[in-house]
Amino acid sequence: MICLVTGTGDRVGKTPGELNAAALTLEAVRSRVLGFAGFVANHWPASPNLTERTTFDRLNQMGRVIGVIPEVPTLDTRTPASLPSGLELRAA
Known about the structure:
Blueprint: E1 2-7, H1 10-14, H2 18-31, E2 36-44, H3 50-62, E3 65-70
Parallel strand pairs: 1-2, 2-3
Helix pairs in contact: 2-3
């Protein structure tokens, strides 16, 4: 099963084609009969605006949204000290 993580909201506005990329990737997954578990919305804000809610709705129309990763405004992956309490960076 494949789970696709995609940006939402502000990132969609700054990265034209985010929904298109999600749709094309989903089409490729389905055409190869890989199994699609759902989308995970990345950088989900505490108070979503119209763009973010619309993006979420469109993702749900293409496939289902199975989860969200909240936006962490203070997060800077180059600075581990910026991580919220309880989170840690690990090398892949």
